[in-house]
Design a protein that fits this description.
about 525 residues; six-stranded antiparallel β-sheet; Pdz3 Domain; single chain; six-stranded mixed β-sheet; about 20% strand; transmembrane; transmembrane helix; hydrolase; S41 family peptidase; Tail-specific_protease; alpha+beta
Length: about 525
């Protein structure tokens, strides 16, 4: 962030949609010989690299030149064909798989040591009793503290082969000696369902932050639990969800759509179509559904929203989605790196293209959020530009529009006040989280015996804590002033405390208490019940 409010970017969050990978089901018809046949264009690139390697006056790392060349080529194709260097490949793979092998802690490198924020539910660390505030000092007698410590090297020691053993020595405030823990590295889920709970006696809420390999299983467990609690209406929150695996999105969709309903059309460069249909599965086909989207909902999120809208299932609430409907396939380059190359386009069941135009270059493409802001689209529904030539009609006669992104059935304006944008940013980007960690370092004893239910109902953020955060913000590089946003600030602080003590579900529950889209859902539900 900049040094004053005026530099806070209004496009925060849009960048999460860059390079999102959607798994494709299309198959290449070309064999390897045809794809990789020698020709003059490839010879030219190879020869240039050789000239630089052997003839150029200075020593040059040609690996870096190749990386730059590959990136340059892909940037001239479309905004979502991307290169994944060797150094980033494993983290990308973990994120899409929805798990990694490790001990299961979230942590900060804090004052030259590993400070545990919280042990991840179901992980090895939680099972052996590691707690928030603990300092992991040694792993298999390897020192993990000191001035030279960095997050990447720590991860190498805490991650490892599945079922491999690790002995930890841990400092815990109040204990005279270091604590010894013996545990095995296990598969640790990277949670994609942030929250699931009942909004009232009949209405449930599930928030999905992306579509990874594990998303459907997480979603189905949450759906089953809420149905057991009596849920008849579901709010599916896909705001800020950048997408992911299409197979996971389709399985979630299948829970809502009746047998043989068209879900998705995929077209490749020669016009071949691949169509996906709902199966006999589906435990919420008769249930009432609302879907929340915003300008950061992209890719697989838009496929879900578009398929439901085109099948007259549920009500889409929010703002026009990002507009990313290009299909990428990951292809290995032989040295541990890979490309995610666009090979097709996605269309909703009525034939709408999800992808918005990108012919004016990547810079304009990713500054679209600023254009939407200036045009008033984020604040006024009638500011959205739609073309009659891109009008489509659903089976029940509802008019929907193509041209990129999904336009909601019910529009909810964005609170674009600089204070709200700033508060939302500092609450979700880690800035407030670090402040809360430091607060808990000195006050954790106050919460040791406080249950989540007691915390929700009875804990109140003090004026002093809010004022301390205002001072902390002013002293940091961001130089934020939220002194006139007291109640909203207290809610954000309480949510961040809840996240570190009780997990992401608690965080979302508290922040959602004043959420405009959820208030609209409950208003619509109340009107429906009065008819």
């Amino acid at each position: 962030m900049g040094h004053s409010k005026k530099y806070i970017p209004l496009y925060i969050g849009i960048a999460v949609a860059v390079g999102v990978f959607i798994g494709s089901k299309l198959n290449f018809q070309d064999n390897n010989e045809k794809i990789f046949a020698t020709n003059s264009k490839k010879d030219k690139l190879n020869r240039l690299i050789d000239y630089i390697d052997y003839e150029y006056v200075d020593n040059v790392n040609t690996d870096s030149i190749v990386d730059v060349t590959v990136n340059g080529i892909l940037e001239n194709l479309d905004p979502h064909s991307v290169y994944i260097p060797v150094s980033a490949y494993e983290d990308n793979a973990d994120d899409m798989r929805g798990n990694f092998v490790g001990i299961g802690v979230s942590f900060y490198v804090y004052k030259d040591s590993i400070a545990v924020i919280r042990a991840i539910e179901g992980g090895s660390a939680e099972k052996v009793g590691i707690k928030g505030g603990d300092r992991i000092l040694y792993a298999n007698n390897r020192k993990l503290f000191g001035e030279s410590i960095d997050r990447d090297s720590i991860s190498k020691f805490l991650k490892g082969e599945i079922n491999s053993k690790v002995d930890l020595k841990v400092y815990r405030k109040g204990e005279k000696k270091l604590l010894d823990f013996k545990l095995k590295r296990r598969r640790i889920p990277i949670i994609s369902v942030d929250a699931s709970y009942m909004l009232n006696e009949k209405t449930g809420y599930i928030k999905i932050n992306r579509f990874s390999e594990s998303t459907y299983a997480e979603f189905k467990n949450a759906l089953d639990d809420l149905q057991d609690e009596g849920m008849k209406t579901l709010v599916l929150d896909l705001r800020d969800n950048p997408g992911g695996y299409i197979s996971s999105a389709e399985r979630v969709l299948d829970e809502f759509l009746e047998d043989d309903k068209l879900m998705l059309i995929t077209k490749n460069k020669v016009g071949d179509e691949d169509k996906s249909y709902a199966t006999r599965k589906g435990d919420f086909e008769k249930g009432k559904l609302y879907v929340l989207i915003n300008e950061n909902s992209a890719s697989a999120s838009e496929i879900v929203a578009g398929a439901l809208q085109d099948n007259d299932k549920g009500i889409i609430i929010g703002r026009r989605s990002f507009g990313k409907g290009l299909v990428q396939r990951e292809m290995a380059l032989g040295d541990g790196s890979a490309v995610r190359l666009t090979i097709a386009r996605y269309y909703t069941p009525t034939g709408r293209s999800i992808q918005r135009p990108y012919g004016e270059g990547n810079g304009n493409y990713y500054s679209d959020y600023e254009n939407r802001y200036r045009n008033g689209e984020l604040i006024h529904a009638d500011s959205m530009k739609v073309a009659d030539s891109l009008k489509y009609v659903t089976p029940k006669g509802k008019v929907v529009y193509g041209g990129g992104g999904i336009i909601p059935d019910v529009f909810i304006p964005k609170d674009t006040s600089i204070e709200n944008e700033t508060l939302n940013y500092v609450s979700r980007n880690g800035f407030m989280s670090y402040f809360i960690f430091e607060y808990l370092e000195n006050n954790r004893f106050q919460f040791n015996k406080l249950s989540y239910e007691d915390f929700k109902k009875n804990y109140k953020v003090s004026d002093k804590l809010a004022e301390d955060f205002v001072v902390y913000s002013r002293l940091q590089e961001a130089q934020i002033d939220l002194s006139n946003y007291q109640e909203e600030l207290k809610m954000a602080l309480k949510a961040n405390i809840a996240q570190q003590l009780y997990g992401p579900n608690a965080y979302e529950f508290i922040l959602n208490a004043d959420d405009a889209m959820l208030k609209k859902v409950l208003e619509l539900e109340k009107k429906a019940s009065e008819k």
